[in-house]
């Protein structure tokens, strides 16, 4: 956790709130990729993450089972 960045799903600059529902930890590498390489990230209902590259390719990770 100490090596993580706290990231807004909906960017703060775009009006995204700083709330638990809109924040999630990212490693520094992923946080930089999201902002510098124009990738999109969204949290999934199962706790996973959806990443969309600037070319439109989608990559999803799944959350842990309950």
Blueprint of the fold:
Blueprint: E1 4-8, E2 23-27, H1 28-36, E3 40-43, E4 49-52, E5 58-61
Antiparallel strand pairs: 1-2, 3-4, 4-5
Summarize the structure.
With 66 residues, the chain is an alpha+beta fold. The chain is 14% helix and 33% strand.
Tag the structure with descriptive keywords.
66 residues, alpha+beta, three-stranded antiparallel beta sheet, two-stranded antiparallel sheet, 1 helix, 14% helix
Tell me about this structure:
This protein is an alpha+beta fold. It has one helix and five strands; from the N terminus they run E-E-H-E-E-E. The protein has one helix spanning 28-36, and strands at 4-8, 23-27, 40-43, 49-52, 58-61. Strands 3-4-5 form a three-stranded antiparallel beta sheet, with no helix packed on it. A two-stranded antiparallel sheet has the order 1-2. The protein is globular, with a radius of gyration of 12 Å. The protein starts with a strand and ends in a 5-residue tail after the last strand. The mean pLDDT is 87.
Strand content: 25-35%
Strand order of the largest sheet: 3-4-5
* Computed CA radius of gyration, to the nearest angstrom: 12 Å
Give the integer mean of the pLDDT values.
Answer: 87
| Structural class estimated from helices and strands | alpha+beta
Sheet bearing the most strands, described?
Answer: 3 strands, antiparallel
């Amino acid at each position: 956790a100490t090596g993580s960045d706290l990231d807004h799903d909906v960017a703060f600059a775009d009006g995204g709130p700083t709330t638990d529902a809109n924040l999630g930890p990212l490693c520094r590498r992923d946080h930089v990729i999201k902002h510098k390489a124009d990738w999109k990230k969204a949290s999934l209902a199962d706790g996973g993450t959806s990443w969309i590259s600037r070319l439109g390719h989608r990559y999803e990770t799944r959350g842990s089972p309950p």
